[in-house]
């Protein structure tokens, strides 16, 4: 990445630039070599200016949320990673509605709604990542998905255009949405029903306890590796195919929940992908069913903007 561009970005208000930064510090699976620039963005205006400067320089870039649900390459990459760390505001805008900026942790949004007596997101506590990533990937658990409470999303396109999409303008599917990679989520509005805080807190605690008992929360992972096929669970299929405990290097198919691959040390993307392929082969052989990855695999030649 051009040194002159780095110096220019360092002078921009609202940006913090880290060079030659290891991505394993910024992904929940703890994989990844270095990137040319890791850029903390503090304001929307700073983001608009940043996108303009980077696009005009021809540098590839990618936006990340909390670093969950992605598996980063082991080798170093000449790329700018943009992290919306400063866009973390949460606020109630009327009796039943909340606005959350894209960089706010999803867990913080969940706790905020519960404390405000707003029903609907209690089961999402414990899902890692940010609000922006949760909306784009339609995060969900225990019968609830982000789309169920979404009212609208405000976006910035990589061409610098501000947009507003209503819920009905967005196509949501299982762990996916029609929000494209050229659209950067800035904030989302949600609408809820009123409920007693005590009841919401109890449900939230119960869901979290269930998650702790059934998922390997104590080890680095990227979350659920595969999408659940219609009418079944990926974890059940993987376990029945005899994959629990399977290892490649320091990556392991979790003994607690088979749809998690955990990093027990210095596991790499190569190790992770090796396990993914072996699990897919075993499940295909036993059930004649192909498991589709839910995690996003970032490739060395990733489809980044330029």
Low-pLDDT segments: none
Total strand count, please? 21
- Overall radius of gyration: 20 Å
Global outline = globular
Strand arrangement, major sheet = 6-7-15-11-12
Cα separation of the termini: 12 Å
Strand content: 25-35%
Which structural class do the helices and strands define? alpha+beta
- Report the helical percentage: 25-40%
The biggest beta sheet reads: 5 strands, antiparallel
The ordered H/E elements are HEEHEEEEEHEHEEEEEEEEHEHEEEHE
Nearest-integer average pLDDT: 94
Assembly state (oligomeric):
single chain
Helical run tally:
7
Account of the 3D structure:
The chain is an alpha+beta fold and 306 residues long. It has helices spanning 3-10, 44-57, 106-115, 131-136, 197-214, 234-240, 269-287; strands at 15-22, 34-41, 61-64, 70-71, 77-83, 90-92, 97-101, 118-119, 140-141, 144-145, 150-157, 162-166, 172-173, 176-177, 183-191, 193-194, 221-224, 247-248, 251-253, 260-263, 296-297. Helix content is 27%, strand content 28%. The strands form 7 sheets. The protein has a 5-stranded antiparallel beta sheet. Strands 1-2-5-3 form a 4-stranded mixed beta sheet, with helices on one face. Strand 19 (251-253) and strand 20 (260-263) form a beta hairpin. The chain starts with a helix and ends in a 9-residue tail after the last strand. The model has no long low-confidence stretch (mean pLDDT 94).
């Amino acid at each position: 990445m051009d040194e002159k561009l780095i110096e220019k970005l360092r002078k921009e208000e609202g940006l913090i630039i880290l060079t030659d930064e290891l991505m394993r510090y910024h992904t929940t699976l703890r994989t990844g070599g270095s990137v040319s620039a890791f850029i903390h963005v503090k304001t929307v205006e700073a983001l608009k200016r940043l996108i303009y400067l980077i696009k005009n320089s021809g540098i590839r870039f990618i936006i990340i949320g909390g670093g969950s649900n992605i598996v980063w390459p082991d080798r170093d990459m000449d790329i700018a990673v943009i992290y919306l760390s400063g866009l973390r505001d949460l606020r109630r805008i009327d009796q039943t509605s909340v606005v959350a900026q894209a960089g706010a942790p999803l867990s913080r949004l969940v706790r905020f709604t519960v404390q405000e007596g707003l029903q609907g997101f209690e089961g999402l506590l414990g899902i890692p990542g940010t609000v922006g990533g949760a909306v784009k990937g339609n995060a969900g658990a225990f019968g609830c998905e982000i789309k169920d409470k979404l009212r609208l999303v405000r976006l910035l396109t990589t061409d610098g255009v501000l947009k507003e999409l209503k819920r009905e303008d967005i196509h949501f599917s299982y762990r996916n949405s029609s929000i494209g990679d050229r659209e950067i989520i800035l904030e989302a509005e949600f609408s809820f029903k009123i409920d007693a805080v005590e009841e919401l807190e109890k449900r939230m605690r119960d869901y979290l306890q269930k998650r702790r008992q059934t998922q390997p929360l104590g080890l680095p992972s990227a979350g659920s590796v595969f999408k659940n096929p219609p009418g079944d669970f990926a974890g059940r299929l993987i376990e029945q195919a005899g994959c629990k405990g399977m290892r490649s290097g320091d990556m392991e198919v979790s003994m607690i929940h088979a749809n998690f691959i955990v990093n027990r040390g210095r596991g790499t993307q190569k190790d992770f992908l090796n396990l993914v392929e072996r699990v897919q082969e075993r499940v295909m052989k036993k059930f004649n069913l192909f498991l589709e990855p839910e995690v996003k695999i970032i490739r060395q030649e990733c489809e980044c903007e330029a």
